[in-house]
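Question thread 4412

I'm putting together a teaching handout and wanted feedback from people who do this every day. The idea is simple: show students a protein as raw sequence, then show them the structure tokens that encode its fold, then repeat with a second protein so they can compare. Below is the first pair exactly as I plan to print it.
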Amino acid sequence: MTEDIELGIDPYPLNETESRLITLLFNLLKYPSGLTYDSIRLYMKEHYNNDKIDSDQKKLHRDMEELGKLGFPAYVRKEDNTYHVKFQINETKFKFSKEELQAISQSLIHQIPEDKITPDVYSLAQKIFGSEWNLYPEWNLNFTKTLKDFEQKDSETIIETLLFCIKNKIPVRISYERRIGLPESKDLDVIQLIKKNSSDFYLYAYDRTKKDYRNYLIPCIQKIYKLESSFIKDHKPSLSFENLHPLMIPKNPDTKIEVTIQINHMDNWENFISGLTYEKDRNNYVLTIRNLESFYTYLLKHGSYFISLQPSSISKTYLEFLDKIESSHALA
């Protein structure tokens, strides 16, 4: 025995246009990355089967416009000629009171040993604690020294990575903080280290997103990562700035040195210090450098060129440099 159920609904059959619009909408929703015209004809053979392809395409465009009028923002992306329905997703955001943020922050940061505190932790504390150091007074003891140690180490790593990537033409991603607290991520083809007015140091690079050449203050580069790709194109060094010589990369205080070079090796030495300001008296040279490690690298390779080297403290630190290399190889 069959019992009819009265639903109070009196449905009417869909007409051909309504059926086509609903089918088109469901297909576009099923494929959020978009469908090509040929794909739509394949999935909806019963609706778009006109032998005249142009005629069917005009009908499809009218249907897209009709979906938009019905509240479904349909559009055609011209870059790849694909058809889409735009999703509008309402973002859900958490809101915390000041007290809740402080409680969360303390719970997180109390798990970090004091000797593991980094500039990132420092930044996190400032953002969430609002500079209220009384919430974590243990940091007040040795934090300043710890932070400076990290900053010096990070700065050396950044410069070394830049030099390596410039030499090998490897693009990088940097975190660039020109304004305090507002870091920006930038993908760059790194071209040249440059200096201006003998005090400002820049990275001359090609912005892979904005497609132009810019100068970036090296002290504003907070982090650097190598990208696993190649330069977008060949780049020429900037001619508007003086090239930053490896001996002048600011890794050490200004150090005045005086060297005497064997006469038959003067050309090699002058080629190495080309671009620097120096005093010369026959085969004796006086100059100021800022990167002892770069000088020691040259000395390691061409030590036999040198007749004398002053001041004597340079010879002492050079021996320490050699001991460091020997220790590194021993550990390896």
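The second pair follows. I'd like the answer to focus on this one:
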Amino acid sequence: MEDYHCLAFLVVLLILRFRLPKKHVYAVPSADAPIPWIGTILELYKDGVTFLRKSRERYGPVYTLTVGHQRVTVATHKEGVMRIMKDKSLENNINIWLFESLGGVESGTITRQIFRLLSTSVLRSFSARGITQLAPLYSDCVIHETTSFINAHKGERISLIEFVSFTIYRAVSVALFGPKFPLDTQLDLQCIIYYFPRLLTPRMFLPRTPVEARARVISALDSFIKENWNQKNGFPGAADAGNDLLRTLRSAHLTSQTELAILFAFIIGLHINTLRVTCWFFALLIHHPTALIAVRDEVDRLIDEEHSGSLNSLLSSPSKAVGKNSLPFLDSALNEVLRLCVLPVLVRQASSDIHLALDGDRSVVLKEGQYIVADGHVLNMAEDVFEDPERFKFDRFTKYDDRQGIPTPPLVSAFGSGPNICKGQDFAIYEMKVLVIVCLRMYDFTGETLTGNKLPSCCPKASTTLPTPVKYLEEDVYLRFNERIHPT
């Protein structure tokens, strides 16, 4: 859920009427706009990396801004960011508000207890240990959906965004909830993700298109549950993870509206970050042929030498397909994408009154409920840690090995960091790896944008920022697939 935080925090600023002190040594400069707090929000949203960098250059590594009547601390140096990410007394409570806003229910409907139940279920079912039963179901679905989509568009240029969205959404949905899941909701899901930030605004500002799409998805989920759910056996053909999720919600004795709202928000959260990162994974591999060839050769070698040429044999066990050291180039390339795709604004909230030491010279006192913000790019773009940090280097992480005493440097991935890291990151990583492995093994593919570029333009301009939280890519990439023939 880390991908929600940047937008959610900005919407909170808007709702609370972001007010900046006129002359304060720590004040963040407002943008050129008739109303300063709106200008600041737009600057953060449009180019959060540049805004934070300019603020850091002007006010130092730690400064404060005013949100409503609260002072919010912003840390933009490595030591401070690391301590914020690791501190267990700082929580992601903003996710509760996000679920309520996305699901369209009143504030206060989803309690902390309900959210903890949901988080426990996700951790239990989507961790590395929990996906053992889910993984083979998902990999079979990926192969089926990939071949179906490509065969249906044979000879055509295929939109990368549509391909990734179609394949992952359908494969995950069928694996989790069984073959009777309403797959025709996929286009509405794309619409909702496109309009995602608008769903977080006050109801008076909600546009009709995503609201109607949400209503259709929730109605389809309602019918699906009523027609297929059995408390004892779950959904027909579904993985234990999907059944455990609904049983967990049922154990909380929620109203039907709240249950459906949470399930809907969960499905959006399950896909919004994974789809974004997967699109960039493909785009960056296509843009760097050396990386694509190295990763493909590695996949071929593992399948041919250890699995008798069988793709299904490799994917049947998640420990083989995604276990460490099985595919070091693939692992490194994905870690590099996750490093580049981190969001610029990471928000945490104090669960109690705390004194947080940000480094040897700086500390901050936070009251319960106060927010602190970390600049997510500081660790990942540190030139003293990562050589040419703005470049995509697919083999960057192959040199790190904890067993050899060369630990991976501290960083924040696209799924967050520390005790508040996304609980479903293990399955999300498996999702992405499986789709890339299937495509590399079964097809040769190339891609370019409509303007002839291999890599989409980025927003903001620097490659460090890559995708925004909302959009997959600034331009779509159009792929051409050709089936590979392997000797028997």
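Top answer:
Good format. For the second protein you could add a caption like this: Strands lie at 62-67, 70-75, 90-91, 158-159, 345-350, 354-357, 363-366, 371-375, 443-448, 478-483. The radius of gyration is 22 Å.
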